[in-house]
Amino acid sequence: MGVQDLQDHVLVQCDFEIFGTVQGCGFTKHCRDNCLALGIKGWVKNSKQGTIMGKMQGAKGDVGKMVEWLSKTGSPGSKIDKAEFTNWGTCSRLAFTDFAIRF
Predict the structure, then answer these.
(1) What does the pLDDT look like over 24-76, one tens digit per residue?
(2) What letters, b where the CB count within 10 A reaches 16 and e where it falls short, cover 27-47?
(3) CA nearest neighbour of 27 among 78, 66, 69
(4) Residue 4, φ and ψ in degrees, nearest 5
(5) Residue 2: its pLDDT value, please?
(6) Shortest CA distance to 58 belongs to which of 20, 8, 22, 4?
(7) Are 43 and 102 in contact (CB under 8 A)?
(8) What confidence tier does 6 reach under pLDDT thresholds 50, 70, 90?
(9) Is the pTM of this model over 0.90?
(10) Cα(55)–Cα(28) distance, rounded to whole angstroms?
């Protein structure tokens, strides 16, 4: 295992908000499914402002993959105009036991 491999396994967390045509196209479901497949914990929800908001925690490399997905790919039918990632930090343990859709 090299230094990069170790860095990819550091536990990180961040909040996110995704802007664009992101509601009504299964975005929260696809986000949850991708996070579960990567072992990322946290939550996602539709906001009253028409955005998608959430929090994710997991291995740095896996969270990086989700940042890419949330920024550029999204669900089929979505159009991402902007993605904001805030409150970055490391964590010694995960505060969530799964990844859930909140209402």
Answers:
(1) 999 999 999 999 999 999 999 999 999 999 999 999 999 999 999 999 999 99
(2) bbebbbebbeebebbbbbebe
(3) 78
(4) -60, -40
(5) 52
(6) 8
(7) yes
(8) low
(9) yes
(10) 12
DSSP-derived secondary structure for the chain: --HHHHHHTSEEEEEEEEEEE-SSSSHHHHHHHHHHHHT-EEEEEE-TTS-EEEEEEEEHHHHHHHHHIIIII-STT-EEEEEEEEEEEE-SS-S-SSEEE--
Residue ranges covered by each domain of the chain: 11-101
The CATH number of domain 11-101 is 3.90.170.10: no
Six-digit token pair at 75?
Answer: 């669900």
Positive or negative, the Cα torsion across 33, 88, 51, 43? positive
Residue 62 structure tokens: 């896996």
Q: Give residue 6's identity as a one-letter amino acid code.
A: L
Q: What is the pLDDT of residue 5?
A: 59
